[in-house]
Amino acid sequence: MKKLVLIGGGHSHAIALKKWGINPLSEVELTLITNVVKTPYSGMLPGYIAGFYTFEQCHIDLPSLAEFAQAKLYIDQAINLDLEKNLVICENHSPIPFDLVSIDIGSTPATLTIPGAIEHTIAVKPISKFLQYWQQLVDEIQQNPEQKIRLAIIGGGAGGVELAFNIHRHLTQIYQQANQPLNQLELHLIHQGERLLSERHPSLSQKVETLLKKLQINLHLNQTVDQVEATENSIKKISCKSGLTLDCDRIFWVTQASASPWLKQTDLATNEQGFIRVNDNLQSISHPQVFAAGDIATMVNYPRPKAGVFAVRQGQPLLENLKRSLQEKPLKPFIPQQEFLILIGTGDRKAIASKGWFNIGPNSLLWRWKDYIDQKFIKQFKT
């Protein structure tokens, strides 16, 4: 009996597990290794931050999904691969053998080179850890709404911008309900580029910057953070290369992604950021028994941004090639789209749609469309 092991419960693997459960291969033992029980759907994260969704509504229950796929489940952290003996080395369990292994463990923000960033900031990825911090912060503010809070978001890509909109919406609502002035919240968004969303069209950047300024969110462009330190009373001090300094109570880190450090201990071919280099079949270019998808993978022929849309699209072709490999059939190439639509929630049940040079919104119809797409995606794992 052949052994297929999935490491991580990301979007691609969630789709693969659901489809495997519907149409499994006989004579294959399937195993899932994950360090979280509930995996968040990134598309609904901004809505959860804004208070539009409950925790259950935007999370996939991995034990239920593994049971549906008739997969063995290990709640554990993979920390290495023995690619000569084909073993997954785990933190708490004995090594798990495989014939094929697939990796979908997401990414983490690249904070390693900034002094103090790891110790004094809250990384938005992995999302599951960030959500614990977020809930603690919401509870603190609800219990003591008279106290002013200063927050900073480092990173002005789509993730940082959406986070700013939705944090502002939820926390100002708490202050309103407690009859407190809205200036209790001081929110900063720091970005090293000349404009927010620098990977998108300038017209979108201008629109988003105008909306954020209307909400009195402080924008700091052309600012590169070079140090974060803790001062007295647990206050965090951000220092930028320009000389700008900011004192904050909490700092959220949403910058360029990097790979989990343990992958560098393996012999897998990776790029400079540590992401697994895969071919058009989502297969490691150095070890054919290893596949990878989602943020942790970089397609050598089709480099794309680290975005959830690509992880979702890779789920079906990943599963198909895993099955084909197990059956010793030729693999099928997957070509990702070049341009992709993004829907940015602005925290007020409105959204902006953007693709290439085109953008429209914010309006409530686009938010309802986004909500429909997200609810439809998550619903397949609830039934």
Question: How are the SSEs ordered, and which strands pair?
Answer:
Layout: E1 2-7, H1 11-22, E2 28-34, E3 38-40, H2 45-50, E4 59-61, H3 62-68, E5 72-75, E6 78-82, E7 87-90, E8 96-97, E9 100-103, E10 108-109, H4 117-120, E11 122-123, H5 127-143, E12 149-154, H6 158-177, E13 185-190, H7 202-214, E14 218-220, E15 225-230, E16 236-240, E17 245-248, E18 250-253, E19 257-258, E20 276-278, E21 290-292, E22 297-299, H8 308-326, E23 342-345, E24 351-355, E25 358-363, H9 364-379
Parallel strand pairs: 1-2, 1-9, 2-5, 9-21, 11-18, 12-13, 12-18, 13-14, 20-22
Antiparallel strand pairs: 3-4, 6-7, 7-8, 10-19, 15-16, 16-17, 23-24, 24-25
Helix pairs in contact: 1-3, 1-8
